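[job 0412] stage=complex_fold ligand=uridine-5'-diphosphate status=START
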Amino acid sequence: MTQRKPNPELGVVIPCYNEEAVLPELLDELDKLDKALPGPVSFLFVDDGSTDATAAILTDLCNRDRRYACLSFSRNFGHQDAVSAGLQHARGDLVAVLDADLQDPPSVIPAFVEKWREGYDVVYGVRTNRKESLPLRLAYRLFYRILKKIANIEVPLDAGDFALMDRRVVDIINRMPEHNRFIRGLRGWVGFRQTGVLYERQTRRSGVSKYSFGKLMKLALDGLMSFSAVPLRLASWLGALAAFLGFCYLAYALVCWIIGITLPPGWTSTVIIILFLGGVQLMVLGILGDYIGRIFDEVKNRPHYVPRATLGWLNEEAGFEESALQRRVG
Ligand code: UDP
Ligand code: MG
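[job 0412] stage=complex_fold status=DONE, emitting structure tokens
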């Protein structure tokens, strides 16, 4: 087993998009976390193009407290890109990823560190219960179970991005150049020793969810399509099903002809067949289009984000501006 440092340095990455309402409470919790850990702790906020007072609060914070830094994006790039950028620039032997809204309590992180001490390289939070609305809970349950069935990586059920990673895992994730990132999948892909810690997922402390329905759908599709080719194979299955149904109909028509039943003129059956085949074809085209769209994104190879400003200890890191655009996230 790898020898673990007694007082490792922890870096905490916190993506923020219009979180002015929850920041004061969050900062109290982060202070408690720092006190609970023996080693040094640094915090890296990633301001994902906030338009409220988030940037002002973070500027003030980074100017007066040396534990804090902030990387601001030029616009809203999305949660997964914010987490990726945070992982790219976080300090520490260990890096934790935490939502700003206190749904994932920072007080669980010391338990993560304990697991790391036992020799695990990735410790992720597993939600024992969720406090979201029933339809959303059902959708999450269904998504994680489908993903587990069809993904070509080991995906823990009901685990999100809330996790603690050893430096070597973070470095590997940072070297992955892909766009449309599904961090919890990339994290699982890396391997090493991974384990979960159970915790109760809270309701958001203040403010409203920043994940619109569209963003959630995109995240779900990124997870399914980046880690599985099963949707592509669906085309062959649907084709086989359509052919089988056609064959059944042909057999039925033959039997009728042999025993002398004249079938009514085939309007209905024709329409059914056309609709069925048309539907299958459109669906398969859609799936192909989605994969091609993703390939297009990779080929364009644009940066994952555009930095607008850096604050706090990030400014002490040499050559930040050039590196952020050249290296790309990953
Ligand atoms: N977030 C972000 N960019 C976005 C959407 C969300 O950085 O485009 C952040 C948000 O500030 C929060 C975290 O990602 O810290 C999770 O978002 P949220 O709590 O709104 O999502 P939910 O928990 O409702 O799925
Ligand atoms: Mg939330």
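The longest helix spans residues 267-300.
[job 0412] exit 0
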